[in-house]
């Protein structure tokens, strides 16, 4: 459903974007063009704003959020890089549309073009390195904090799973469902359609780092992205992994 809604939104704005993807100037009534985008800055923005829906390297989440590795679709819908930037500025991120500046939107569009090889192999390598650097730093930080607190030791895993389940019932179920089935703004996290097993977050360190930095994607019951403690993020990760039978107690 979310995938269909995303493409419907895209088709709904493409006509307006085709006219130049700018905004009228308050002074002269003309069109203010999109600024030039910085793909590396876009990669950094992606890591903090877009990754939670579209995946670590733009691969998307099947049945929930579209892949960004579809250059033919982007060119068909938006015409060019400026058109894509215009769409991003007015419609993304899905949880807070219109919150990005024109420069941020231009950077994000430049990143997507670079990720698809439209700016040459060297620039693509640079944006991938920026993505990997951001992911590695987050994972390392979470791993160090968890290790220092003793939170991921085998003896404490059962307690963490129980704590994570309690927090899930307060926050995460709103989008992901009480049984992790998804369907209310968030993808399924376990079960036949779960996106964790076989993915980049199928381990405690990576998943807890991702949760700590990005979840919940929208303010929910007093929590927002970045507000969870390392212990809370680790507990949620442990609970989710236990439901996927990926955690040894």
UniProtKB/TrEMBL annotation:
Residues 37-116, 159-244 form the Cytochrome c domain. Residues 1-18 form the signal peptide. Gene3D superfamilies: Cytochrome c-like domain (1.10.760.10). The keyword Iron applies. InterPro entries: Cyt_c-like_dom, Cyt_c-like_dom_sf, Cytochrome_c550/c551-like. The keyword Signal applies. It comes from the Bacteria. Keywords: Electron transport, Heme, Iron, Metal-binding, Signal, Transport. GO terms for molecular function: electron transfer activity; heme binding; metal ion binding. This is Cytochrome c family protein.
